Amino acid sequence: MSEDEKLLKEAKKLPWEDRLTHKNWKVRNDANIDLAAVCDSITDPKDPRLREFGPFFKKAVADSNAPVQEKALDALIAFLKAADADAGRYAKEVCDAVVAKCLTGRPKTVEKSQAVFMLWVELEAVDVFLDAMEKAIKNKVAKAVVPAIDVMFQALSEFGAKVVPPKRILKMLPELFDHQDQNVRASSKGLTLELCRWIGKDPVKSILFEKMRDTMKKELEAELVNVTVTARPSRKIRAEQDKEPEPEIASEAASPGPSEESSADAPQEIDEYELVDPVDILTPLEKSGFWDGVKATKWSERKEAVAELTKLASTKRIAPGDFTEICRTLKKLVTDVNIAVAVEAIQAIGNLARGLRTHFSGSSRFLLPVLLAETRVAEGVGGTGVLASPGLLMIGRWMTWRAFYYACVGRE
Q1: 145 vs 97, 104, 194, 292, CA distance in Å?
Q2: Among 93, 100, 231, 318, which is most buried by a count of CB atoms within 10 Å?
Q3: Distance from first CA to last CA of the chain, Å, rounded?
């Protein structure tokens, strides 16, 4: 028996942690092989050994020896296949270690790292996965950025937008469009096109195109022509895998309506409002001199103050806050003696309703009557009745019918 064989034989008597951190790389390598074999043999995700093994991987995947690191990734893959969502407790530390130590490794190491990330998504640790990707795309080495983008593409493509939230990915993409490495730019373009397949072209264009260089806009526009906005997940999260599939319809002739498959092919309706972060407009409004402006004797100063509010409220999504006094002021300004001020107030109300949605319902109750009054007047204050209609409709859209009715008739 050779010295190495003796060493490995004696090392097998050591606890797992001692073997996995042994100073001899051959011992660590052998330990990872054995660990993978044990995990492969586990059939119960509640097996207590999985709880024992979980803390080992943070250090194991960061091994400085490349062959050992690959074996550690093999063991981690076996562990994740045997585990259930409870393994998510180790997700952050392990994902961070993989991002820091594996994405710049050998091609096989990178491939196994991506498989690890996909398994974390399968185990519903998608937020941790995306947190890790946010760190990965900031790596100064482009070699580490491309695999991160590619695995996000893979996760979205296989699991779909219901599992992998598009909003998180949309926030990451802008900084990649101007990356100095062409491979990063190419991968980010591919990820953008994949997003279009899941949530539609218009939301993606609305949110991202203003942040792109003209060159990339043209390239994407050309490729979007061939993008079909129909995507179906090909992979399920672990919790869904054990569920029995719904029985298929025996014959298409049995139902005159669209088939289950065709309805699944329909594009997923994604509200653009849910894809963007809310913006605080109260703080900048306070600094703009709004309150002094709306009390000014000159109509031009009143209009200018309200116009600033209209501009701030034009953002796609407004952060909730106390808009009561603002709305009381707008209520008075809707009947301002100057038509320009009244029109601007109505526009501001419409923007607030659009940006706040249900958060605007409380204030809308005392705004509705005055807007309704304006629509009833043929000429009104300079003829603002026609212009009040869009603001009225925007408010009504985000109120319950009961609240809308009582606001209209003037009682609770």
Answers
A1: 15, 9, 18, 50
A2: 318
A3: 92
